[in-house]
Amino acid sequence: MGERPLAASRRPPFAGLLGLGFVIDFLDTLGVGSFATTTTALKLGKLVEDEDIPGTLNVGHALPTILEAVLYITVVRVELLTLVAMIGASALGAWFGAGIVVGWPRRTIQRALAAALLATAAFIFLRQVHVFPAGGDALALTGAALLIGVAVNALIGALTSLGIGNYAPCMALVSLLGMNPTAAFPIMMGSAALTLPLAAARFIPAKRFHRRTALGLTLGGIPGVLVAAFLVTSLPLDAVRWLVVGVLIYTSALMWRSALQETV
């Protein structure tokens, strides 16, 4: 249920899926993001049919992301109204976004994933070259800034069902609104902790995910989160992010080519 048979050559050892989940959620906890990197691994490894990638992302990373949210929300304090409003908006966006994506055909999903990967690469690139402002010291939003934050975070939540991770866009959003960049972590991880399970609740009944891969990502991802949160004190993430940008652009082109080759 929820799993499409793959050729033997495309069925990696379960230990490999555990390792993939560990590495990706390890980096996710440190702020690299998980959706774009997982999409790249699944596409290049031909591990999941393209149309099942969005569902596999949301189902497989749901529990590790909830764990991340619990860890960060208890450590980084953000004003309650700002936190609840932005997280709630993201969850609402994810619910409606996933409801739309589950009905899309393979070719549409391939094109959407290609665009999602390219958009994520653009966000990371802009962050790396410091186009986005450094942010301010605020840990709360009020008035028009709060309304803008809620509206944009709802859109970001809707896009997560396509495979656009919320980390880079959310980091850009809070910085542009003048918040302390550290405030992005509880907001983006709290948002993901709600959006992923809600999106998963759409994909699972529709059987638009790969069960074995999602299970491997979950079981490998949880210890990856714990190791990153409690044992890692420093890591050269700048180099990792530049590598991710290059790989995302390549995978986006590959996904778009697959869409062009797909029969109408």
What does this structure look like?
By secondary structure, the protein is mostly helical. The longest helix is centred in the last third of the chain and has 25 residues. The two termini are 27 Å apart. The chain has one domain. It is built from 11 helices and no strands. Helix 1 crosses helix 10 and helix 4 runs parallel beside helix 10.
* Helix content, binned percent: over 70%
Main β sheet profile: none
**Strand percentage:** under 5%
Tally of discrete structural domains: 1
Which radius of gyration do the C-alpha atoms yield? 17 Å
Structural class assignment? mainly alpha
Shape: globular
Order of helices and strands: HHHHHHHHHHH
Structure annotation, total helices: 11
Number-wise, the strands total 0
Low-confidence region ranges = none
Span of the ends, CA to CA? 27 Å
The gist of it:
The protein is built from eleven helices and no strands. It has about 260 residues and is mainly α.
List keywords for this structure.
single chain; 264 residues; mainly alpha; 11 helices
Give the helix/strand layout.
Blueprint: H1 14-29, H2 35-44, H3 53-60, H4 62-73, H5 80-101, H6 106-128, H7 143-160, H8 167-176, H9 184-206, H10 211-230, H11 237-261
